[in-house]
Amino acid sequence: MAANKNKGAKSKNPPPKKKQRNHLFTEKKRPTKKDEVFDDVSDGQSEEEQLEEAEDLLDGDEQVSDFDDASDISDDDDALLADDFLQGSDDEDEDRGSGSTSGSGSDSDGTDIEEKSRAIDEQREREEEDAQAEMQLNIKEESDEFRLPTKEELEAEQQRPPDLANLQMRIKDIVRVLSNFKELRQEGNTRKDYVDQLKLDLGSYYGYNEFLIGVLVDMFPVVELMELIEAFEKPRPTCIRANTLRVNIHFSVVVFIFDLCIFRSTIAIISFKMQTRRRDLADTLSKRGVELDQLSKWSKVGLVVYNSHVPIGATPEYLAGFYYIQGASSFLPVMALAPQEKERVVDMAAAPGGKTTYVAALMKNSGLIFANEMKETRLKSLTANLHRMGVTNTIVCNYDGRELPKVLGQNSVDRVLLDAPCSGTGVITKDPSVKTSKSLDDIQKCAHLQKQLILAAIDMVDANSKTGGYIVYSTCSMMVPENEAVIDYALKKRDVKVVPCGLDFGCPGYIRFREHRFHTSLENTRRFYPHVHNMDGFFVAKLKKMSNTKKNLVSSDGSETVEQTQRPEEIHSDEDNKKELEQQKMKKQSPKGKKKSLKVKGLSGNGKVESPPTLKNRDRSENGKVELAATSKKRKRKFPSKEEISKAREEKRKAMRGKKKQPKEDKTGI
Amino acid sequence: MRPLDEKETTAVFEKIFKFTGNNLKNIVENPSHEGPDKEPGRYCFRLHKNKVYYVSDSLVKRATNVARTKLASIGTCVGRFTHGGNFHLTIECLNLLAANAKHKVWLKPTSEMSFLYANHVLKGGLGRITESIAPGDGVVVFSMSDLPLGFGVAAKSTQDCRKLDPNAIVVLHQADIGEYLRMENQHEQIIEE
C-alpha cells in the first residue's frame, strides 16, 4: 500500500516538472513563430495527460515508464538530456525505496548495481538507435524527393520579384529528377509536369521566351539542354583566318629582302616559310601582344585568339588583309563547298564577306565568284572586305537571291554557297535578343524563304559541270524546320542528293524528329553545337545536283524515268554512248522521240509537236509551253549549239573507240 | 559599266604613272588569272557609277548580264572621278600600286599608327626612302616589315630629306589602309542614326 501511495505521489508530482520541460521544449524549438507556440502548448498538455494515463496503466512496470520518458527526452536537445538524467535518477531513487519496502528480502546491493548497469546499457543502446534514426532522417531530408511547387506557390512567386537562387536550385532539382525519373519522381506527377515547370523556370532564369525554350526542350535531353543553355551564356573564342591571298604576297617580299642581305641562306628560308604561313602570321601577331594558337586540326588557316593587348580588329596586319576575324563555324560551309580553281561560284548571301573571301582564297583568285547581297546597306562593307583581303575575282551584285537564276542563267555555274538568312538561334551568344524576339511565325517565314532560295540555288548549278555541280546550304540556326526540312523539301522538288560534307566531325542531321520523317541521306548533313564543338550553333548540308531536270509532283514517275535516261550522259561510258545513239535514232524516226530527248537535256520542249494526252506528256507539254513563252528566242539560238554538241560527242566517241582499239591491238600483238 | 573614253583614260593613266613610272606597262599588259577561261586574258579598265575598276576581261564579259543598277563592284576598284572631272586613286588600288611602285617610303614602327590615322609622313618617322624621288611624285608607304600601308605625294625630294627638320613633312597623305576601318565606322554610324 505504501508503495502504491508512493506511486500515487510520484504520478502526481512529476507532471508539473514535465510541463515545464515541454514548455521549454516547444519554445526552444520554434522561438519565432508565436502563433504556433500556443498551439503547441496545448498539444503538449494533452500529450502529458495521455502520458499520465499511460503511466497509471503501466503501474508496476517501472522500466517501461522509464522508456517512455527517455524516448521523449531523446528527441530533445542536449540541455534537456541533462535535465532528463536528473529526473531519471529521481525515479531510480524512488524505485529503490519502493523496492526496499515491498522487497522480498533479496540482496538489494547486487540488484542495484545490476539494474544501474543495465539501465545505462539500455540508455546507450537507445541513444545509438536514436542517433541512427536521426541520421537516416537527416539523409532523407537532404535527398528528400523534390516537390514541384503548387499552383498557389507559383502564383505567390509571380507577385514577388524572381528569386534567382531559388530558381536555379529548382532547375537543378528538376534536371536531377528528370535524369532519373523512375526513382526520383514524385507520386502523382507526370514527366510533363516536371518538364513544364522546367520550361517556365529556364525561361525566367535565362530570359528565353516560351516558344524558343519549348523547341530546345523538344530537341535535347535535359542534361544536354542545360549544357547548351549554359554554353549560350558564354562567349565563343575569337577566331581569325589567315588570308592565303595576302600572306603569299608578303612572303615574296620578305624573301626579296633577305636576298639582298644574305643570298645563300634565303632558299632554305623560302621553303620553310611557305609551309608554315599560318605560323608566320601567328609570330607577327604575337609580337604585337596577341596570344593565339592554331584553331584545330581540321583547319590549316584558322587561329584562335586567347587574349590580346591590342584591338585585334585594328592592327596594321588586319587592315592590310592578312587575316579576317571570323567565327569557327563560318569556316565549315566553305570547307564543305571545297571550290576548285577556275570554277564559277555563286555566294548567294555574301555580306559581310567572310565566306566569300575564304572561297576566293581557296580558288587562289582564279575563276569567278558572284557575290550577291540583297541588302544595299551591307554592300559597302562587303566590297570593302573583298578589297582589303585582296580578292579580285568577284562580281558583287545586289539582287534578291530568288531572282538570281534568271539573272545568271539556269544551269550556268559550278558551285553555289547558300548561307541562308535565318532566325539566328545558333548565335544567341552574339545576339541575346534572339531569346525573346523569335516566334513560330518567324521560323516559318524564314523556312519559306529558305526553301525558295535553295531551289534557286539548285537551278543555277549545272549538273553537267565537270568539276562541280554542288550546292552547300548552311544556316546559323538550330531549328529543324530551317535545316533538315528545307533540304528534305529540295530533295523532293529537284533531282539532287545529299553527299557527305567532307567534315569529319559534327553531329549527323536528324532523320527523325518528333513527328517528322526525313530522307535517310540527311544523315550526311552536319550539325554543330556550342556545348559540343565550342562554336556557334550551325548546320551544313552539301547537295550534288544529279540532273538539270525539275521534278514535278504530278508525274513523279515520269520525271524519274527522264532522270534515268539523263544521268548516264554525265558519265561517258560505252553503254551510255549506245543509249545516246539509240536516242538519236529515235529523234530521226519520230517527232515524239525528238521531243523527249530535247526535254532530257533540260532545254525547252518542242511546243509544235502534238502531245498525246497521257499524264506524263501533258505535264511536259505544260512545261514546254511555259518555257516556250519565256525563251522562244533562246530556243532558236540553242538549236545549232545542240548540233555542235552532238558533233563533239561523236568525235569523242571516235577517240574512245580509237583508244579501245589500241590496247586491243597491243594485246593481240603480245 | 563602260570602257573609259580617251580623256578619262589619260587621266587615269597619268595618275597611275606618277606612282609606277614605266611599270604602268606591267599593269596593262599582265595576263589575268581571273575568270573561268582556260587561256589567261588581259586586264582592262571599266567605268561604273563614277568608279574605275581594274578587272579581268573574262569577268567583264560575265558581268554583262547583271543590271547596271544592281552591280555593286567588279574586280578591283582603282579610283573614282569626282564631280569636277578629276580622277582620284582610292585605297583599294594599293595592292596594284605596291606591286609596281617606283617610289617607296618605309616608316618606323612608331609612326605607323600615326600614318594609319591619316596623318602626313614626317621626317622623324621615316625609316628608309628610295632614291631619286622628286617633289610631286607618287609614293607608296610601307611599314618596315614591308606591309603596304597607303600612298601619298612626295613633298620633298630624296636629297632634301637628308637635311630636313624632324617635324617637316616628307610625304603628303592621300590614302591609307586605316580607311577601311574609318569608312566602316562611318557606315555603322549611319545605320545607328
From TrEMBL, chain A:
Its main location: nucleus. The keyword Lipid biosynthesis does not apply. Keywords: Membrane, Methyltransferase, Nucleus, Ribosome biogenesis, RNA-binding, S-adenosyl-L-methionine, Transferase, Transmembrane, Transmembrane helix. InterPro entries: MeTrfase_RsmB-F_NOP2_cat, MeTrfase_RsmB-F_NOP2_dom, Nop2p, RCMT, RCMT_NOP2, RsmB/NOL1/NOP2-like_CS, SAM-dependent_MTases_sf. Residues 1-159, 550-670 are annotated as: Disordered. Residues 257-546 form the SAM-dependent MTase RsmB/NOP-type domain. Belongs to the class I-like SAM-binding methyltransferase superfamily. RsmB/NOP family. This is SAM-dependent MTase RsmB/NOP-type domain-containing protein. It comes from Gossypium stocksii.
UniProtKB/TrEMBL annotation, chain B:
Keywords: Nucleus, Ribosome biogenesis, RNA-binding. One of its GO terms (molecular function) is RNA binding. CDD domains: Nip7_N_euk, PUA_Nip7-like. Gene3D superfamilies: 3.10.450.220, PUA domain. It comes from the Eukaryota. Residues 103-178 form the PUA domain. InterPro entries: NIP7_N (IPR040598), Nip7_N_euk (IPR055359), PUA (IPR002478), PUA-like_sf (IPR015947), PUA_sf (IPR036974), Ribosomal_synth_fac_NIP7 (IPR016686), UPF0113_PUA (IPR005155). One of its GO terms (biological process) is ribosomal large subunit biogenesis. PROSITE patterns: PUA. The keyword RNA-binding applies. It is found in: Nucleus, Nucleolus. Coiled coil: none annotated. Pfam families: pre-PUA_NIP7, UPF0113. The keyword RNA-binding applies. GO terms for cellular component: nucleolus; preribosome, large subunit precursor. Required for proper 27S pre-rRNA processing and 60S ribosome subunit assembly. Interacts with pre-ribosome complex. Belongs to the NIP7 family. This is 60S ribosome subunit biogenesis protein NIP7 homolog.
